[in-house]
Design brief:
15 helices
Length: 286
């Protein structure tokens, strides 16, 4: 039996296919590597040479701690309550129904809400987290090399939390092990070059399948250290500019804002695609 919300929220097949084409167009755009990103291939070893060993050690420890997210989530797992409240607020605003939903919203139920509500919520999350990242980058840019060791793990942590919030928007539970792996792949995608993006899109192509355990490339992901190494390396020249004291304020703010916008956009598009494909498959099965 369907609830009143379910009866009025399903998009038509044409609407879903149109939304899917928009995402596929975005994916095609990702294959064009921005000129400055080519310069971003500048070996991060340059930064390693400039950074005192004790700071490198601290950065390594922070990245190792992030790796634990795959196994247990740890302190990087967010509470879904705040995000669900946000979704409810957007639903009331977009639907014009002050009384909101007839039942308490859960992550699973969030996945059946109108795409418009989910998209608006995701956009607001991206905007909010980008502002936080901008302030964070400006703050850590004050001290140049001394505060860079703080900024890198901090922006990685904020990126992970942003992806999880967007996952909840589209009805996916980040506490699930498979979803944590998807989170890491989204994070990797946002900073990869053209070859990496293509490979990741191919890996994620079947992730909307009912039996996610069969998605071998993802379920067997073991090299999370390489994921974070790639993520850090691909900042390359960007973070080098942040080493300049005082001037690092501007560079830090700009870099971190761009990083969160890229992460947020990738998360929105990749989770949105999964939700659209699942709804299309459900219509066929129905």
């Amino acid at each position: 039996m369907t609830t009143p919300e379910q009866e009025r929220i399903h998009e038509t097949r044409h609407e879903l296919q149109t939304a899917l084409k928009e995402i596929e167009a975005w994916e095609a755009e990702q294959k064009d590597l921005w000129f400055w990103e080519k310069l971003g291939r500048l070996p991060f070893q340059v930064l390693d040479r400039l950074t005192p060993k004790f700071l490198n050690k601290k950065i390594g420890e922070a990245l190792d701690e992030l790796g634990n997210y795959l196994q247990a989530g740890g302190r990087y797992l967010i509470s879904e309550k705040g995000t669900l409240r946000h979704i409810e607020e957007v639903f009331e605003r977009e639907s014009g129904e002050p009384d909101g939903l007839t039942e308490a919203l859960t992550i699973e139920k969030a996945g059946i809400l109108p795409l418009q509500v989910l998209d608006v919520t995701a956009n607001e999350i991206i905007q909010s987290r980008s502002k936080i990242a901008t302030l964070q980058g400006a703050t850590t840019g004050i001290g140049g090399i001394l505060t860079l060791a703080i900024d890198i793990p901090a922006i990685l942590g904020l990126s992970l939390k942003t992806i999880q919030e967007i996952a909840i928007c589209y009805g996916y539970d980040p506490k699930d092990k498979q979803e944590r792996i998807f989170t890491i792949k989204v994070l990797q995608f946002s900073s990869s070059d053209i070859v990496g993006k293509k490979a990741i899109l191919e890996e994620l192509a079947d992730y909307a399948a009912a039996d996610k355990e069969k998605v071998q490339m993802i379920s067997q992901l073991q090299g999370w250290r390489e994921v974070f190494a790639t993520y850090r390396d691909n900042w390359g020249w960007k973070k080098l500019f942040q080493l300049i004291p005082i001037a690092g304020i501007l560079f830090g703010a700009w870099i971190n804002r761009g990083t969160l916008k890229d992460v947020g956009e990738a998360a929105k598009m990749l989770y949105r695609k999964r939700r659209i494909l699942e709804r299309l498959n459900a219509q066929v099965d129905g």
